[in-house]
Amino acid sequence: MASIETRHVNAWYGKTQALYDITLNVAERSVTALIGPSGCGKSTFVRCLNRMHEELPETRLTGEVLVDGVNLYARSIQPMRVRRHIGMVFQQPNLLPHLSISENVALGLHLNGVARGKAVAEQVELSLRQAALWEEVKHRLHTPATELSGGQQQRLCIARALALSPQVILMDEPCSALDPISTLQVEELIRQLKKDYTVIIVTHNMQQAGRIADMTAFFLQGRLIEVGETKHFFAHPKLQETEDYLSGRFS
User: What is the pLDDT of residue 249?
Assistant: First the structure.
């Protein structure tokens, strides 16, 4: 688990500025939901938190991203090391279709050389248990991961992120492609994960934010408009822009 602080973060795609002066604190062992209309900068922001933003051509960032006080953009910090400690789960399950269930979870372990032999199998089991998937797949670990349902595939992606023992887990609309039952399973998993991890989730579903998030942050046109404790945020927004969005006056 880890606390996160961003200080005056600005981000660009070429000459187009996507984020403007984002300063936000995220407490450890909490769930923070990022809400706002499409194109408001939510996904760009989470990609800045584990240095994925810089993987795209002609992008740049100014400001600071600190995890437990360490600036992730310091020259001495390697991006791959950042991504080991800050896992990412995407909107669509990004499995490797030619690999088995077990191999998909173990992929990061092999690439990073952090476990070998029996230790890999033990970490795979632990990660699948943490992702509430072990009982469903323990008898078919060597079957193709693509045989799993959509919800199971997304939990498998979460297990793969957990296998590297990250401090922070980023989720970019992880339930948008799932059916209602699978969505509830992932939401319950997120509630369990916050006992040991710091979780940041991008969601268009305000009801989902209300169900799982401790804090909610509203983005609009690349700016952080308002952030607050979720139950108060939805019941008593401080700013007119927030109230307009929550009431459906724009989306």
Answer: 77
